[in-house]
Write a structure and sequence with these properties.
TIM Barrel, alpha/beta, globular
Length: 338
């Protein structure tokens, strides 16, 4: 099973991606939410200069956030900087769409976007928005067209699974999503996300380090609302009451403040041990290793680990040991032999 990672991009993320490559991670994806995260494409361009083997890409781009031609040009540029290791994931949108005051898009629109992106990267012209568009990079631009780039789809239910099967080279999913297990889908080309921290020996779930490292993922389930893993809990009800204090027209901006990157002051009292256990895969080294073995048994292609908190290298290294990859695998075997 492949082991990769996924980040909310920050100014430090290019260095973190270099750390991940050194630890043996095979993928490094970043989110695309320009309203509160560092720019995804700039982040990956900087990461390309610091790495040589790890696959890098955005997860996800959406049809409404940037015009098709803008994303196609960005993908082609990154593929020139990191040939043979650039990937991209297209989705219907969650946070990036909601931060615009809009909901997720129709799957037909996502499929059209995947097909249009693939055609543009091949050097073909496409009809889009009532006009013919195409990439016209000349030799002096340095950008190479055509660009062969794997395109995945982020999907959590039957409609998304069907789009991935028809139009994409694989998918990214979350096995804990409320609709992830509805409808038949082949998982052999799926990368599944994993959030949580590896506990130090004797470490409590309510200590500051654990809250910092798991809180963003736990709060994510609060952001989802009733469809999340913790819908109806005391923590979820308290979060709903907090949001109700904001004007309805701006509530979507507060819902996703710090989304998957940091714990806000309003959220911190709600990051209880019960919430962490329900919303994340946090556990001891043995527990996380066992969870990864169970995921591998489901036949997925790989796992994308989402490290969070102020010490990303620590999170990456601890998870790498549990996953048995790279130098961490050798250290684990040496420790077992001793």
């Amino acid at each position: 099973m492949n082991i990769g990672c996924i980040f909310p991009p920050t100014i430090d993320t290019p260095d973190h991606i270099a750390v991940a490559e050194g630890l043996g991670y095979e993928y490094a994806y970043v989110y695309d939410s320009p309203s509160f995260l560092a720019d995804a494409w700039m982040t990956l361009a900087r990461a390309a200069e610091r790495t040589s083997t790890i696959k890098i890409g955005v997860s996800v781009i959406t049809p409404r956030l940037r015009h098709l031609i803008a994303n196609a040009g960005a993908v082609a540029t990154l593929a020139t900087l990191a040939p043979g290791r650039t990937e991209v994931v297209v989705g219907s949108g969650f946070t990036s769409q909601l931060m615009l005051g809009e909901g997720p898009l129709r799957w037909a629109e996502v499929e059209d976007y995947v097909n249009g992106l693939r055609s543009l990267l091949r050097g073909e012209d496409v009809e889009w928005g009532g006009a013919t568009i195409g990439l016209r990079h000349g030799d002096l631009s340095g950008v190479r067209i055509p660009a062969e780039v794997p395109i995945r789809v982020a999907a959590h239910g039957p409609k998304g699974y069907a789009v991935a099967a028809r139009a994409a080279d694989g998918m990214v999913t979350n096995l804990d999503h409320h609709s992830a297990n509805t409808g038949a889908a082949s998982m052999d080309k799926a990368l599944v996300t994993y959030f949580g921290t590896v506990l130090d020996k004797g470490e409590a779930l309510d200590c500051d380090r654990v809250i910092d490292a798991t809180g963003p993922a736990a709060a994510f389930q609060l952001h989802i609302g009733v469809q999340g893993l913790v819908g109806g809990t005391a923590e979820a009800k308290a979060y709903e009451a907090h949001l109700a204090s904001f004007p309805e027209g701006a509530r979507h901006l507060e819902t996703h403040r710090g989304h998957l990157i940091e714990v806000t002051e309003a959220e911190r009292p709600l990051i209880t041990p019960a919430l962490i256990e329900s919303a994340t895969g946090t556990g001891t080294s043995d527990e996380v290793a066992a969870a990864l073995s169970q995921i591998a048994a489901s036949g997925v292609q790989g796992v994308l680990y989402g490290p969070m908190g102020p010490d990303i290298p620590r999170e990456l290294e601890a998870f790498a040991r549990c996953a048995g990859i790279g130098a961490a695998a050798g250290e684990a075997k040496a420790g077992a032999a001793a």
